[in-house]
Design brief:
Layout (H helix, E strand, L loop, with lengths): L1 H15 L13 H14 L3 H6 L7 H11 L6 E12 L2 E12 L2 E12 L6 E15 L3 E16 L2 E15 L2 E2 L2
Antiparallel strand pairs: 1-2, 2-3, 3-4, 5-6, 6-7
Length: 179
Protein backbone atom coordinates (compact mmCIF):
# COMPACT_ATOMS: atom_id res chain seq x y z
CA UNK A 1 0.00 0.00 0.00
CA UNK A 2 2.77 2.40 0.94
CA UNK A 3 4.71 1.54 -2.21
CA UNK A 4 1.73 2.18 -4.49
CA UNK A 5 1.03 5.49 -2.70
CA UNK A 6 4.71 6.48 -3.03
CA UNK A 7 4.70 5.52 -6.73
CA UNK A 8 1.50 7.53 -7.32
CA UNK A 9 3.00 10.59 -5.62
CA UNK A 10 6.24 10.18 -7.57
CA UNK A 11 4.41 9.96 -10.89
CA UNK A 12 2.43 13.12 -10.05
CA UNK A 13 5.63 14.95 -9.14
CA UNK A 14 7.46 13.78 -12.25
CA UNK A 15 4.53 14.77 -14.42
CA UNK A 16 4.64 18.37 -13.15
CA UNK A 17 8.39 18.88 -13.33
CA UNK A 18 9.99 19.82 -16.63
CA UNK A 19 12.64 17.37 -17.84
CA UNK A 20 16.26 18.33 -17.20
CA UNK A 21 17.49 20.99 -19.60
CA UNK A 22 14.00 22.31 -20.37
CA UNK A 23 12.63 25.44 -18.79
CA UNK A 24 8.96 26.14 -18.40
CA UNK A 25 7.78 29.18 -20.34
CA UNK A 26 5.73 31.64 -18.28
CA UNK A 27 2.27 32.49 -19.53
CA UNK A 28 2.25 35.68 -21.61
CA UNK A 29 1.13 38.77 -19.71
CA UNK A 30 -2.21 40.08 -21.11
CA UNK A 31 -1.19 43.76 -20.83
CA UNK A 32 2.09 43.09 -22.63
CA UNK A 33 0.14 41.28 -25.35
CA UNK A 34 -2.22 44.26 -25.64
CA UNK A 35 0.70 46.69 -26.02
CA UNK A 36 2.23 44.43 -28.67
CA UNK A 37 -1.10 44.47 -30.52
CA UNK A 38 -1.16 48.29 -30.36
CA UNK A 39 2.41 48.35 -31.74
CA UNK A 40 1.41 46.09 -34.62
CA UNK A 41 -1.69 48.18 -35.37
CA UNK A 42 0.41 51.36 -35.58
CA UNK A 43 3.18 49.76 -37.67
CA UNK A 44 0.64 48.41 -40.17
CA UNK A 45 -1.66 51.47 -40.05
CA UNK A 46 -4.56 49.23 -39.03
CA UNK A 47 -6.90 51.53 -37.12
CA UNK A 48 -9.55 48.80 -37.11
CA UNK A 49 -7.15 46.53 -35.18
CA UNK A 50 -6.59 49.37 -32.69
CA UNK A 51 -10.35 49.91 -32.30
CA UNK A 52 -10.77 46.19 -31.54
CA UNK A 53 -8.54 46.73 -28.48
CA UNK A 54 -10.64 49.62 -27.15
CA UNK A 55 -13.36 49.49 -24.50
CA UNK A 56 -16.74 51.11 -25.25
CA UNK A 57 -16.10 53.79 -22.61
CA UNK A 58 -12.99 55.12 -24.40
CA UNK A 59 -13.89 58.62 -25.53
CA UNK A 60 -13.84 59.38 -29.24
CA UNK A 61 -11.63 62.42 -28.56
CA UNK A 62 -9.00 60.33 -26.75
CA UNK A 63 -9.03 57.70 -29.49
CA UNK A 64 -8.83 60.30 -32.27
CA UNK A 65 -5.95 62.15 -30.55
CA UNK A 66 -4.00 58.90 -30.22
CA UNK A 67 -4.64 57.93 -33.85
CA UNK A 68 -3.73 61.36 -35.27
CA UNK A 69 -0.52 61.40 -33.23
CA UNK A 70 0.77 57.90 -33.98
CA UNK A 71 -0.93 56.35 -37.01
CA UNK A 72 -0.36 57.14 -40.68
CA UNK A 73 0.47 55.66 -44.06
CA UNK A 74 4.02 57.05 -43.74
CA UNK A 75 4.81 54.98 -40.61
CA UNK A 76 7.56 52.53 -41.51
CA UNK A 77 8.17 51.12 -38.01
CA UNK A 78 6.78 51.38 -34.49
CA UNK A 79 8.12 50.24 -31.14
CA UNK A 80 6.27 50.33 -27.82
CA UNK A 81 8.02 49.98 -24.45
CA UNK A 82 6.25 49.75 -21.12
CA UNK A 83 7.88 52.05 -18.55
CA UNK A 84 5.57 51.72 -15.56
CA UNK A 85 2.45 49.87 -14.48
CA UNK A 86 -0.05 50.56 -11.73
CA UNK A 87 -2.98 48.43 -10.63
CA UNK A 88 -6.12 50.55 -10.23
CA UNK A 89 -9.74 49.72 -9.45
CA UNK A 90 -11.14 47.70 -12.34
CA UNK A 91 -7.88 47.39 -14.25
CA UNK A 92 -4.41 48.83 -14.75
CA UNK A 93 -2.72 52.01 -15.88
CA UNK A 94 0.41 51.71 -18.03
CA UNK A 95 2.96 54.36 -18.92
CA UNK A 96 4.30 53.49 -22.38
CA UNK A 97 6.81 55.07 -24.75
CA UNK A 98 6.24 54.91 -28.50
CA UNK A 99 9.04 55.30 -31.03
CA UNK A 100 7.55 55.94 -34.46
CA UNK A 101 9.62 55.98 -37.65
CA UNK A 102 8.09 57.94 -40.53
CA UNK A 103 10.35 57.33 -43.52
CA UNK A 104 13.48 58.23 -41.57
CA UNK A 105 11.97 60.95 -39.36
CA UNK A 106 11.30 59.89 -35.79
CA UNK A 107 8.86 60.67 -33.04
CA UNK A 108 8.99 59.65 -29.39
CA UNK A 109 5.74 59.94 -27.46
CA UNK A 110 4.85 58.93 -23.93
CA UNK A 111 1.25 57.90 -23.28
CA UNK A 112 -0.62 56.87 -20.16
CA UNK A 113 -2.96 54.05 -21.15
CA UNK A 114 -5.77 52.87 -18.89
CA UNK A 115 -6.96 49.29 -19.30
CA UNK A 116 -10.14 47.72 -17.98
CA UNK A 117 -10.05 44.05 -17.15
CA UNK A 118 -13.79 43.51 -16.61
CA UNK A 119 -14.00 40.68 -19.17
CA UNK A 120 -10.60 39.24 -18.29
CA UNK A 121 -9.27 40.65 -21.57
CA UNK A 122 -7.55 44.04 -21.30
CA UNK A 123 -9.38 46.80 -23.19
CA UNK A 124 -8.14 50.37 -23.57
CA UNK A 125 -10.45 52.64 -21.57
CA UNK A 126 -8.37 55.81 -21.42
CA UNK A 127 -5.52 57.50 -23.31
CA UNK A 128 -3.56 60.54 -22.17
CA UNK A 129 -0.50 61.90 -23.93
CA UNK A 130 2.20 62.83 -21.43
CA UNK A 131 4.89 64.10 -23.82
CA UNK A 132 6.02 64.01 -27.43
CA UNK A 133 9.16 64.90 -29.34
CA UNK A 134 9.08 65.05 -33.14
CA UNK A 135 11.58 65.94 -35.83
CA UNK A 136 14.12 63.30 -34.82
CA UNK A 137 16.34 62.14 -37.67
CA UNK A 138 18.75 59.28 -38.16
CA UNK A 139 21.85 61.08 -39.37
CA UNK A 140 24.36 59.61 -41.77
CA UNK A 141 27.55 61.26 -42.91
CA UNK A 142 27.65 62.38 -46.51
CA UNK A 143 31.14 61.21 -47.47
CA UNK A 144 30.84 62.71 -50.95
CA UNK A 145 31.58 66.14 -49.48
CA UNK A 146 34.70 66.47 -47.31
CA UNK A 147 36.23 69.52 -45.67
CA UNK A 148 39.81 69.88 -44.52
CA UNK A 149 39.89 71.16 -40.93
CA UNK A 150 42.71 73.03 -39.14
CA UNK A 151 42.47 74.41 -35.59
CA UNK A 152 38.68 73.97 -35.47
CA UNK A 153 36.91 74.75 -32.16
CA UNK A 154 33.15 74.46 -31.62
CA UNK A 155 31.79 75.78 -28.31
CA UNK A 156 28.28 75.42 -26.90
CA UNK A 157 26.79 75.43 -23.41
CA UNK A 158 28.71 72.87 -21.33
CA UNK A 159 30.42 71.49 -24.43
CA UNK A 160 33.55 72.20 -26.47
CA UNK A 161 34.87 70.26 -29.45
CA UNK A 162 38.44 70.88 -30.59
CA UNK A 163 39.97 69.44 -33.74
CA UNK A 164 43.60 70.44 -34.45
CA UNK A 165 43.46 68.94 -37.95
CA UNK A 166 41.47 66.38 -39.88
CA UNK A 167 38.57 65.89 -42.23
CA UNK A 168 34.94 66.87 -41.58
CA UNK A 169 31.80 65.63 -43.31
CA UNK A 170 28.23 66.85 -43.29
CA UNK A 171 24.92 65.13 -42.52
CA UNK A 172 21.70 66.08 -44.32
CA UNK A 173 17.98 65.71 -43.67
CA UNK A 174 15.06 66.59 -45.94
CA UNK A 175 15.28 70.15 -44.54
CA UNK A 176 18.95 70.49 -45.55
CA UNK A 177 22.36 70.24 -43.91
CA UNK A 178 22.02 69.65 -40.19
CA UNK A 179 25.46 68.65 -38.94
Amino acid sequence: MRQSLALAMLSVLLGTVAPAGQQSVPAPDPLTQALTAVQTAIATNRRDAFHALCAPQLSDMDSLGFELSLFGPDVTAATVRERDREVVAGGSRVLAEFLINRNGAGQIATWQISFTLATGVPRISGLHQVSSVTGLHRLELDTSTAFKVNNFVFTATDFQLSMPSGTAFIAKTAEGTTA
